[in-house]
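Tokens for chain A. Residues wanted.
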């Protein structure tokens, strides 16, 4: 983000074609180099899910890491939206 964002959750909207992520981590960083995992989830095989961040806070860098999927060798994500606010 352009400034530190207080993120308390995120939503993942995946395509309906069957190439969906299964295991995901939400990570945050102050400097973009050292990352801390703040949520780990196993997604259901449905189009949209909301995940709560276990320890929300103000950080400039946020990312989602996909650890596994339901089928195929790739995933197809339509949208990732973070819930929170800026300082």
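Reply:
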């Amino acid at each position: 983000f352009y400034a530190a964002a207080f993120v308390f959750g995120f939503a993942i909207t995946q395509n309906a074609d069957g190439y969906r992520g299964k295991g995901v981590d939400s990570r945050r960083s102050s400097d973009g180099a050292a990352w801390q995992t703040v949520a780990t989830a196993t997604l259901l095989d449905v189009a949209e899910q909301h995940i709560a961040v276990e320890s929300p806070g103000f950080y400039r860098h946020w990312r989602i890491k996909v650890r596994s999927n339901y089928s195929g060798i790739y995933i197809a994500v339509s949208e990732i939206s973070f819930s929170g606010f800026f300082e």
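The chain has a mean pLDDT of 89. Residues 14 and 46 are 8 Å apart (CA to CA).
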